[in-house]
Amino acid sequence: xxxxxxxxxxxxxxxxxxxxxxxxxxxxxxxxxxxxxxxxxxxxxxxxxxxxxxxxxxxxxxxxxxxxxxxxxxxxxxxxxxxxxxxxxxxxxxxxxxxxxxxxxxxxxxxxxxxxxxxxxxxxxxxxxxxxxxxxxxxxxxxxxxxxxxxxxxxxxxxxxxxxxxxxxxxxxxxxxxxxxxxxxxxxxxxxxxxxxxxxxxxxxxxxxxxxxxxxxxxxxxxxxxxxxxxxxxxxxxxxxxxxxxxxxxxxxxxxxxxxxxxxxxxxxxxxxxxxxxxxxxxxxxxxxxxxxxxxxxx
Length: 299
Hints:
By secondary structure, this protein is mostly beta strands. The chain folds into two domains: 4-126 and 234-278, no CATH class; 129-231 and 281-286, Sandwich (Immunoglobulin-like). It has three helices and 17 strands. Strands 1, 2, 3, 4, 5, 6, 7, 8 and 16 form a nine-stranded mixed β-sheet that branches. Strands 11, 12, 13, 15 and 17 form a five-stranded antiparallel β-sheet that branches. Strand 7 and strand 8 (117-123) form a beta hairpin. The longest helix has 13 residues, at 234-246. The chain is globular and about 60 Å long.
């Protein structure tokens, strides 16, 4: 889930404001550790934990990575050590092949160089959606190569229990960042077959491609579009919804209400973020004609 930490940074900045809007020295900022730890069941995906520190809202500095920490995950009696790669990056990766397993409990332990301890527990929920196929349809006119819209439809089955999802789209393995992905529940199709449901859109305009890269490019013949749906536990869903409501990148902090604290399952002093273990359903479609309608019959 790329750039998730960036949204947490924004929330941290907002949370550092007092109710009296007392703008004084940036030295009064209360530094917080940010933990981005989302483990999936994808064996071919690098599992990682990203650590960083917040900076004062009015600072021109970027959030600093937290280097030299000890990061481990206990997977039912087996301890998995994460290595910082590259050194100084604050990104800690698991050994190749490590992945989450449905129904299994995991314990995250983090020890910083100053001895500060942080820990969290998570259980991977059962996958809530069987994603069989996806297809695309051109839905808007291309204007000078910078204005176009596609819809993505899905075919599959939602399981009977209430589920929560993080839905993201990738083009040639370049995926949407958090702020343009979706967080949703299954109230519209709980327990039912899903046939041609238009769950996502691909919008390509020049400023989105400049900002987010090839995930927002104009589709061309040969491109591969991927849709991923991560099943979330209720706590992680509430965390992501809270970031969506309170962490808008377009908000003007001085004229916005003070946001509520985002929920977290991480124990420790002055910490933001979440530890989650998520099963993933995904499907791909190869573009043969960027301007064609769905091949499949809508039902």
